[in-house]
Design goal:
single chain, alpha/beta, Rossmann fold, 2 domains
């Protein structure tokens, strides 16, 4: 409890001075969230956090990016946003190397950039807001090991170019180190296309049904595709650990096809991110290019962990009720 209290105090000391800012806002202020695949439920939740913070502060907001996963289109959207001279930018780096120069150009032009959800640590972005993805992977790996009872072959669906997914996989690997009889037999890059997860699962179950015991999905879309294939073929006894909490994933947990999923807080990421950007506008830093991560007296944190949690059949109904209360949705 002492560690927890100290951690909470540290977050308050670092973050509250940033989000408690002047009430003198202007409709000329424009804050933009840029991401890839903005139509999926995860990013719609992030858009909700952006809109809510903007409405509270009475500033303009916009949420842009491709409707389907496309890192190049995301970069083009970011570059177009920069021509609009925004007050600040939040961005989730689908491909960190691809976005680096664009982020650096924004910082050099005096536009503060904060990464959320997926980081671009080699860029000049100010800092990262999001999940501790390594710990999320450890949590998933521990649950996987328990479900498999310490033995089995696993297929992982991911997108290796995204730093956040690479961190999740690292967490899984470390969690499984103490279970040498659990093997990651195959890693599949779905490249942002859920059909790859569907088709690959169908292929595996047709040719190697008895050789695969579990499916791990490190991003939001693959879990429900795997569950659909298993259910359609009336296959039981396979473990599925998913990521995120879109309605289909939660329904498959209710039905017992997905064992568990890791819940993130995209709404919180964009909500907190916008308020910090707003504070930086009203209380400008001396420099946007300082290396705050190595400065013991930095005015900004290096990382804001928005948290994650495990959702399974034991708590899915409570989670859905909280989600309904927060969003006003019926399901």
């Amino acid at each position: 409890m002492r560690r927890f209290s100290l951690a909470c105090l540290l977050v308050l000391v670092l973050v509250l001075p940033l989000i408690t800012c002047s009430s003198e806002h202007s409709s000329d202020e424009l804050y933009v969230l840029v991401s890839a695949n903005i139509q999926v439920p995860y990013w719609k939740a992030a858009g909700g956090g952006l809109s809510q913070a903007g409405a509270q502060l009475k500033v303009r907001t916009d949420f842009v990016g491709p409707d389907e996963y496309d890192p190049k289109a995301e970069k083009e959207a970011f570059d177009k946003v920069l021509t609009r001279k925004p007050t600040g930018i939040l961005v989730s780096a689908a491909d960190a190397s691809l976005l680096k120069d664009s982020i650096d150009a924004a910082i050099n032009a005096g536009v503060p950039v904060i990464t959320i959800d997926s980081d671009a640590p080699a860029s000049k972005r100010l800092f990262f807001i999001g999940t501790n993805n390594y710990q999320a992977g450890v949590t998933g790996g521990q649950r996987l090991a328990a479900e498999l009872k310490g033995k089995g072959n696993v297929v992982v669906f991911t997108m290796p170019a995204q730093a956040n997914l690479a961190e999740r996989l690292r967490g899984y690997r470390d969690a499984l180190e103490s279970h040498p009889e659990i093997k990651i037999a195959r890693i599949v890059d779905i490249a942002g296309d859920p059909r790859v997860a569907f088709d690959t699962t169908t292929e595996i179950l047709g040719k190697e049904r008895d050789k695969v015991d579990a499916f791990v999905c490190l991003e939001a879309q693959a879990g429900k595709e795997v569950a659909t294939v298993l259910n359609s073929n009336k296959i039981t006894g396979k473990v599925v650990v998913a990521m995120d909490t879109d309605p289909d994933t939660l329904e498959w947990i209710r039905k017992g096809v997905i064992a568990a999923t890791i819940s993130q807080k995209p709404y919180t990421m964009s909500y907190v991110g916008l308020r910090i950007l707003d504070s930086l506008y009203h209380h400008k830093l001396n420099s946007l290019t300082a290396d705050f991560s190595k400065d013991s007296f930095a005015p900004l944190p290096a990382f804001v962990d928005t948290g994650s949690s495990l959702v399974d059949k034991s708590n899915v109904e409570a989670f859905v009720q909280m989600k309904q209360a927060a969003t006003g949705t019926a399901k």
